[in-house]
Design brief:
- The structure is a single chain.
- The chain is an alpha/beta fold.
- The protein is built from 17 helices and 23 strands.
- Helix 4 runs antiparallel to helix 8, helix 6 runs parallel beside helix 7 and helix 11 crosses helix 12.
């Protein structure tokens, strides 16, 4: 339990279970640490398995017996549009909370929060058009139709890098489908999710529709192992996703997993180098590299390799590190000491393996703390650990290629398949490569663009299922076939007619 002396003057953010703001049953609390100054700034409950069970029971009751199960799609859509308006109203407040929690730039978080309402507005539209079909069949005495029904209680386990945005990718379609929701945010960044619960209540969602329970692995395990949970959704590392999938399979619980990436950003010799360099920088150094879609492998045609490295290295050395709340800051710290140690160790190992440091090289010697200098490594092969494992930090590896076929082979030579960027002025080449790259999202002459109507997810070890778009809504529904006998004549029990 957190020492009371350490919590003096800090705001406490309780959980939301069954429409009530509550502490953990055991009374334990923990501190949220600001990555910029490494000081505690908020107190949150440290829940255990029994708290998670209460949250699931509340969601189960709301789905099975509460008013939510009787709402129409139009009523759900109205609530979602109301929520969108509230998010829009309070975007600045919540962007600041998220920056304090995870150390990302305030201006980046503000862009996210101002865009989030569109997810609820988009899925509100899908809620009222989530129709089944009247099916043709070869029996004149039958009418057959399908229904799209909510999967039920959803348990979401969300990451620390963009807690609310990545929760909303799950929550908006779940609400549109008619599901109830329990979310466990990362124990490193729980505050924004706890605060977001205020908006759900103000919007008027019935008790138990949305529940937040905070804590560590015991809470996540309780959610994934619960027989009362109908679907588990997770964004995070592939290793944890595999463990969640195995646990859910014990009860045949549905799963959607948005997992890791080691995405390739491919620069061809005919590209607009100014645009390509800006895209490469945005792909890895924006968000301090702490994004699943980071373009952490830069594949560059050998003829322009040195020029691209020179330009990116020069810009990397001028990136302004500092307070994420300062509008002049271009890159903030990494989220915690665990990540800091992991990233710096990986860069040291890469150098030992033969990589050359073109810029940066690990911890920033000026800023100190949890700041890592924007780092560029050349002389990297696609077999080095630094090129195969997701790092989640501001570290770019540059690998040369000689032909279009070579670029495609390198891009696909990965256990992951989340995203890819293609930089070329040859429209035929752009579409050829986009078709051959094994990735769930491909950007052509762009990077890190998402929208509520565009499906997002990965191939291979980058996940199972899709978020966003019509595909995302389908993840939260079950399809039911209904056969209606029309003749009124008792059928022959020994035939199918």
């Amino acid at each position: 339990m957190t020492n009371k002396a350490l919590t003096a003057g800090l705001e406490f953010f309780p959980m939301l279970i069954g429409g009530r703001r509550v502490d953990a049953i055991g009374g334990k609390t923990t501190l949220s640490i600001n990555p910029y100054n490494q000081q505690p700034w908020a107190v949150v409950p440290e829940a255990e398995a029994n708290d998670a069970e209460l949250a699931v029971e509340a969601a189960r009751e709301a789905f099975d017996n509460g008013p939510w199960g009787r709402t129409t799609a139009f009523q759900r859509a109205a609530l979602m549009r109301r929520l969108a308006d509230l998010i829009e109203r309070d975007a600045e407040k919540y962007a600041r909370i998220e920056t304090m929690d995870n150390g990302k730039l305030y201006k980046e978080m503000l862009v996210q929060w101002r865009y989030m309402p569109e997810w609820f507005r988009y899925f509100a539209g899908l809620a009222v058009s989530n129709d089944g079909q009247l099916l043709q069949n070869d029996r004149t005495n039958f009418m057959v139709y399908t229904r799209r029904e909510p999967v039920g209680v959803v348990a979401a386990i969300t990451p620390w890098n963009s807690p609310i945005m990545l929760m909303i990718w799950k929550l908006a379609p779940a609400l549109a489908a008619g599901c109830t929701f329990v979310v466990k945010p990362s124990e490193y960044t729980p505050v924004s999710t706890l605060a977001f619960a205020d908006l759900m209540q103000e919007a008027g969602f019935p008790a138990g529709v949305f529940n937040v329970v905070t804590g560590g692995p015991a809470v996540g395990a309780a959610l994934t192992n619960s027989k009362q949970v109908d679907k588990v959704v997770f964004t995070g590392s592939t290793q944890v996703g595999i463990a969640i999938g195995k646990a859910a399979m014990a009860n045949l619980t549905r799963i959607s997993l948005e997992l890791g990436g080691k995405s390739a950003n491919i620069i061809f010799e005919d590209s607009d180098l100014n645009a390509a360099v800006n895209g490469a920088i945005s792909g890895i150094f924006a968000a301090t590299g702490q994004t699943c879609m980071a373009g952490s492998r830069l594949l560059v045609h050998r003829s322009v390799h040195d020029e691209v490295v020179r330009r990116i290295s020069e810009r990397a050395k001028t990136i302004k590190l500092g307070d994420p709340l300062d509008p002049e800051t271009e890159m903030g710290p990494v989220v915690n000491q665990v990540q800091f140690d992991r990233i710096t160790a990986a860069v040291r190992q890469a150098a030992e393996d033969g990589a050359t440091v073109a810029a940066g090289g690990g911890a920033d010697q000026v800023k100190g703390g949890l700041f890592i200098a924007p780092t560029i490594l050349t002389g990297v092969t696609n077999r080095m650990t630094i090129a195969t494992e997701e790092l989640f930090g501001p570290v770019l590896v540059v690998i040369p290629f000689d032909s279009e076929e070579d670029a495609i082979a390198l891009a696909n030579d990965s256990d992951f398949g989340l995203a890819c960027g293609i930089w070329t002025t040859n429209v035929q080449r752009a579409h050829r490569v986009a078709a051959k790259v094994r990735a769930g999202t491909v950007w052509i002459n762009a990077y890190r663009i998402v929208a509520p109507n565009a499906p997002f997810g990965g191939f291979k070890q980058s996940g199972i299922g899709r978020e966003n778009g019509v595909d995302g809504l389908r993840e939260y529904t079950e399809s039911k076939s209904v056969w209606v006998e029309l003749s009124g004549v008792a059928p022959d029990p020994f035939t199918l007619n």
